[in-house]
């Protein structure tokens, strides 16, 4: 459902051109969960932002459900993103003066969905992420892990085809990190949504079915993990 073709990107600062991604090619099957692993500065966030249509690449193509988002104009892209793409941020990016359930509903507000349907679906998703009774609270009253679960619920409300998550457990301790990853895995199975998870931690990456490794802007490894065979059985070593 996701296909990256000869993708390259450089940042330009006056006369200085910094190449950040070079000739990236890969495909991701519908409903799968893959990790994009690499150390800080390897180009993970740039790649994720390009795939989510948040910026345009210098070169190459990005197909989501056979639609090349690189060729879309601003309006087409905005509409496509609302319908097909979800995003989860490291720092949650929730709205502090809205309640938990209002945050989850927000994408539906922009789509003009009726208040009743919004509320029903948002409550259902809060149950899915293990926060059935937190809807009326404000986000500041929740722990980091709980806030990330709210942001996961929010990303799913429009039932996007693909969710991009940039270091979703980067601000969490190890135990909370495991909880959040296991929720992502459960939702991936249940909802058949494709997940692309960026991380710099190999332990996090190996919870997924497949690990794509970036180094200095190049894809250097594409490995299937044992989680792919023994789904749900926890962490496994990588074999190719
Ligand atoms: N807006 C920008 N302008 C110039 N250079 C950038 C910009 N954003 C990122 N970079 C550079 O691109 C490289 C990759 O960054 P990034 O994609 O954020 O890596 P990662 O997410 O893997 O840490 C880094 O060297 C970074 O300094
Ligand atoms: Mg990053």
From TrEMBL:
Which superkingdom, per the lineage? Bacteria
Q: Which UniProt keywords apply?
A: ATP-binding, Nucleotide-binding, Transport
Q: Where is the ABC transporter domain?
A: 2-240
One MF annotation (Gene Ontology) recorded for this entry: ATP binding
Q: Does the keyword Calcium apply?
A: no
Q: Report whether ATP-binding shows up as a keyword of the record.
A: yes
What SUPFAM superfamilies does this protein map onto?
P-loop containing nucleoside triphosphate hydrolases
Q: Cellular component GO terms, alphabetically?
A: membrane protein complex; plasma membrane
Tell me what this protein is called.
ABC transporter ATP-binding protein
* Species this chain originates from: Paenibacillus agilis
């Amino acid at each position: 459902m996701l296909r990256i073709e000869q993708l390259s990107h450089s940042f330009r600062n006056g006369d200085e051109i910094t190449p950040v991604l070079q000739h990236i090619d890969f495909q991701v099957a519908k409903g799968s969960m893959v990790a994009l692993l690499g150390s800080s500065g390897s180009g993970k966030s740039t790649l994720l932002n390009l795939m989510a249509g948040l910026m345009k690449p210098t070169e190459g193509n990005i197909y989501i459900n056979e639609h090349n988002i690189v060729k879309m104009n601003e309006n087409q892209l905005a509409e496509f993103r609302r319908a097909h793409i979800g995003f989860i941020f490291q720092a949650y990016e929730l709205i502090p003066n809205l309640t938990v359930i209002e945050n989850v509903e927000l994408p539906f507000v922009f789509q003009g969905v009726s208040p009743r349907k919004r509320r029903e679906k948002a409550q259902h998703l809060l149950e899915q992420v293990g926060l059935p009774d937190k809807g009326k609270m404000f986000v500041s009253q929740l722990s980091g892990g709980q806030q990330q679960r709210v942001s996961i619920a929010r990303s799913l409300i429009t039932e996007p085809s693909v969710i991009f998550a940039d270091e979703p457990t980067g601000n969490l301790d190890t135990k909370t990190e495991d909880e959040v990853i296991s929720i992502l895995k459960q939702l991936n199975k249940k909802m058949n949504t494709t997940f692309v998870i960026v991380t710099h931690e190999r332990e996090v990456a190996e919870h997924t079915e497949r690990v794509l490794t970036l180094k200095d802007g190049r894809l250097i490894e594409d490995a299937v993990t044992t989680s792919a065979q023994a789904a749900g059985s926890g962490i496994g070593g990588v074999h190719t």
